[in-house]
Each structure stands twice: as C-alpha cells, then as structure tokens.
Amino acid sequence: xxxxxxxxxxxxxxxxxxxxxxxxxxxxxxxxxAAKTWYSGDQTMAYVLVFLATFIFLxxxxxxxxxxxxxxxxSPRGLELQKKSVAVTVNGGERVELVKDLRYFPDYAGKxxxxxxxxxxxxxxxxxxxxxxxxQESDFKDVRSHLSVYK
Length: 151
Known about the structure:
Layout lengths: L4 E4 L4 H27 L3 H26 L7 E6 L4 E5 L4 E4 L1 E7 L5 E7 L5 E7 L6 H11 L4
Antiparallel strand pairs: 1-2, 2-3, 3-4, 5-6, 6-7
C-alpha cells in the first residue's frame, strides 16, 4: 500500500432500520414485563428488568445513532489508509490517526469490522465500520483486504 487511500462514509439507513427492529421490541418487552412484575408485588425482579431494558436501550441507541446513522460527535465519517497508520475523520471534524498497537477485528459474517489503536496522544481509540457505510461493495472489500495485515 504505497499510496494514501481515502474512503468517505455515508449513513447506513437500512442497517439502522434492522437494528431498530432488533432493539426496540426487546426493550419494550423488558419494560412491559418490568411494569407487570412491579405491580404484581415483585419489585426486586422489576429493578433487574428495568436495568436490563435501560442497558439494552443505551447499547441500541449508541449503535443506531453512533455507527449506523453517524449522528454522534465521535462517529467516523472518513477512513484514510496509509502505509504505517490509519486515520479516521470523525463527525466533529477531528482527525484521529491510529499509529500504535493497531488491531483489525473482522466479524465472521463479513458485514462489519472494528479498528482499535493508539492515537498520537497515546489514547486508545476504537471504531466500528459497517458494510452499508461504504459507497460501493468493492470499497468495503478493499478496506478489509488492506487492513488484514493488522489482524
């Protein structure tokens, strides 16, 4: 990889819809069962169910708003591959260059991957990228093949 390769990312509305179909019913079922157990007299179980509903809600909101729709300030907007580093441009305009301990984590289904590494200030950063964020399927495959050296 002698040259710098840039990839601009777009929001993945289709993936966000699938994630919403996954997380919303789970949170609703947990919350409704928590309300049922609260009024039936088993408040201890209701606390556990409310905790689980809140926890899964926060995970789903972060996944949908952060990685799929890219609305949060730390959401990745662009990816720049260089010979010895990877730079990620985030939504807030900051450019994060991962230069040390760079690791690439592909998923088994081939639909997303994660990047973890240290930036120039020594802070550990991690990012998740989905196939639907890339403009073309070939871009996603190219990025995965270039990043496979960091496994």
